[in-house]
Please model this.
Amino acid sequence: MKQHLTINSLIEKYPEFCSNVYCGFGVGDGWLPILDKLFNNMKHHVNQIKSHNKWYTECKNRPGTDPNVLANHSLKEELNPQVAQVKEKFGLLRIYIDNTDEYIDGLVSMAESISAITCEDCGLPGEMRDGGWLRTLCNSCDEAVKVAKKELFEKYAKTQYAKTQKEINETNK
Model:
């Protein structure tokens, strides 16, 4: 059975990246699988660098290692990427991460691009919608938002009408 992702479950699953999120997570559930894949790929990349550095150090320190084996290799800078903020901005996923390299920056750009065609509420294919606020939604979620806005407006209008009628009645007394 597939586990339902939550922001808290992502933070628990990737504490090495998410333990010091100082500006928070502010996205819909539909984009959480994108973040899960991003963090998983980041974890793989960081672990590959650690494995490479371990191999390089062991080979370099091993007596009799042929220098040609190491000629095209060197120690790579170890990474400690830290998520600063994840949010929606202008209908797209925005991910701010400190201490990255070009590879992780590319992963982040890809995740942000995928959000442009993924409903931020449910994760189905979506598109940018402008209903006063730019959002990426599927047809079903867009319709639900429109219905909720209409109901909220009607409730507000009724309340304002009742308030106005009450004021008129009090003025006419």
Q: What stands out?
A: Residues 26 and 87 are 4 Å apart (CA to CA).
